[in-house]
Amino acid sequence: MAENGTMGTIKIANEVVAIIASLAASEVEGVASMGGGVGGSIAEMLGQKKGVRVETGDEECTVDLTVIVEYGSSIPVVAENIQKNVKEAIESMTGLTAVEINIHVQGVHFPREDKKELVNEDEEM
């Protein structure tokens, strides 16, 4: 975002918007983690937020988020809640209009504790 005020220009880097989007998405119930895979690891080494891609213009932005959802959560509900939370956070903190927030569900997280309990129960039988 570049805004010309009476005192100068304000520019918000894509990385700042990506951090806001990542934190806002992580707050949503049902989100296990941000995705990204191997490409995400490379992006993180380059200073980009894992599972987040942002493109900004002068007054608007688009965001692509890759997430892993908790098993048992409704994927459409979680995705819609992510979109709402991310849009609100970006718009209130930066003044940019979030025109698109695309959610890519990369996987489902199964709690490990449940698996251990199931294995232990099977061993007792």
Q: Any descriptors?
A:
single chain, 125 residues, alpha+beta, Alpha-Beta Plaits, 4-stranded mixed beta sheet, two-stranded antiparallel ribbon, elongated
Q: Which helices and strands appear, and what pairs or packs with what?
A:
Blueprint: E1 2-4, E2 9-11, H1 14-26, E3 31-34, H2 37-45, E4 52-56, E5 60-70, H3 75-94, E6 97-109, H4 112-124
Parallel strand pairs: 5-6
Antiparallel strand pairs: 1-2, 3-5, 4-5
Helix pairs in contact: 1-3
Overview of the molecule:
This protein has 125 residues and is of the alpha+beta class. Helix content is 44%, strand content 31%. It has four helices and six strands; from the N terminus they run ββαβαββαβα. α3 links the parallel β5 (60-70) and β6. The chain has helices spanning 14-26, 37-45, 75-94, 112-124, and strands at 2-4, 9-11, 31-34, 52-56, 60-70, 97-109. It has a single domain (2-124), classed as Cation efflux protein, cytoplasmic domain (Alpha-Beta Plaits), CATH 3.30.70. The strands form two sheets. Strands 3, 4, 5 and 6 form a four-stranded mixed β-sheet that branches. α1 crosses α3. Residues 38-48 have low confidence and may be disordered.
